[in-house]
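Lab notebook: predicted structure, single chain.

Context: the supervisor wants predicted structures on file for every construct in the current expression panel, including those that have not yet been purified. This is the next one on the list. No modifications to the sequence; it matches the entry in the shared construct table.
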Amino acid sequence: MKPHEIKGHMMLKNVRPGDVAKKLGVSDAAVSQVISGTCVSARISAEIARAIGKPVSEIWPNRAA
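Prediction complete. Output recorded below exactly as produced.
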């Protein structure tokens, strides 16, 4: 998925990047970097996927497992 698609799915589920950041105890910037693809974090990716109800592999299909 492209970053705008991830953000769109998050909006549909009423989940903001700040919500994910707060739950995980990380910065909003860290979550935004994962969404944009400039940073990789399995923990943040997993929480984003959980929040929007999609598997990580569907959101980031080119990421090595």
